[in-house]
Amino acid sequence: MRKILGPLLLGVGGFLLTTALLVLLWVPGQVKKTPLNVNSLTTLTGEASYLGSDRAPVKATSHTVTDGDASTGGTAVFQTFTCLMWNKDGNAPDCVSAEGEDSILINAGTDNFATNRKTALAEDDQAKYVGANASPHSGLINKFPFDVEKKTYPFWDGILKDAVDAAFVGEEEVNGLKTYKFNINVVDRPAEIASGVQGKYSDDKTMWIDPLTGSIIKQAEKQVRVLPDGSAALDMDLAFTDAQVQANVDDAKTNGGKLGLVGKLPWIAGVLGLLSLGLGILLGRGRDEAVATTDVKTTEAGSKPVGATTVRAGADEPTKPLFGGTDATVRRPDIDLPEGAVRLPDGTVRLADGTIRRPGIDLTKE
Questions:
Q1: DSSP for 299-323?
Q2: Model's pTM, two decimal places?
Q3: What's 37-78 look like in SS3?
Q4: Per-residue pLDDT for 212 more than 50?
Q5: Residues 148 and 126 sit within 8 Å (Cβ to Cβ)
């Protein structure tokens, strides 16, 4: 059993250590990437005043999907459709047609963009992935990178057509999930606030980010667009719904658990691998010692190892090697012989009077 178990443990230990190294160096780079099967609908609610109207409830949705055909191993291509509607009765659908005088639609828009799957930053050459009609993008757009840091990140603003600072402002727990809190604060920036209409734009947006996956868990913003004459084109407060926040938290915990297992696996496999190797070495060493240990049979002339090297005093004698191979000769220094004594080829000694003495007897005494 020991003969089999020792080598088996050595093999298992080597496999586990190799697995640990592979998971540590290669797997995180493969799993910490934006997935290419995104199909998400984000819902926000709040209040707004539009072109001088009274403030009333509004609802906004953002439907984002990945374009699998245009995406690559390192780049994710997204198509996003946004819709902002009046929600005065609280029953607004996800989006409506813009047709009709009584339409509850305030505005709608689409955006196509490509981001790096590891860094989440916009690709420099958008046209390469989106097509000739692609518009330039920069910074983060729809998520933060994996393993978010406590620092300022550039974040895309679709009104300014540029990236603005998203500054880290602290940690905060959201429905049992630890998040990093970032804030964007834009004040009275010149911008195209509507198609062909110039004005001033302000936005105070706070985002709560899952630090492990980089997903946006919660968001709240105050956005104001002012016409050249000083009147408000849009004054809006908007935030993720409670149900949306909880769904995001649940997804983050599920995905974070998987990533956490990937992070622990190298250490688990490494410890088990070292234990297996150590046990395998101990069993192998014990087997070698058992082979080297021999039984002893007692004879009239003394004792002699059985199945191991045979040594006879005062003789040059062929011996049986322990582990096979060619015969070896073990030499022992000569001992003092009495006057007239002769050593015979078989190791015995003939005394001057003809008496034969075997090895192991003191030949100097009579």
A1: ETTEEEESSS----TT--EEE--TT
A2: 0.67
A3: CCEEEEEEEEEEEECCCCCEEEEEEEEEEECCCCCCCCEEEE
A4: yes
A5: no
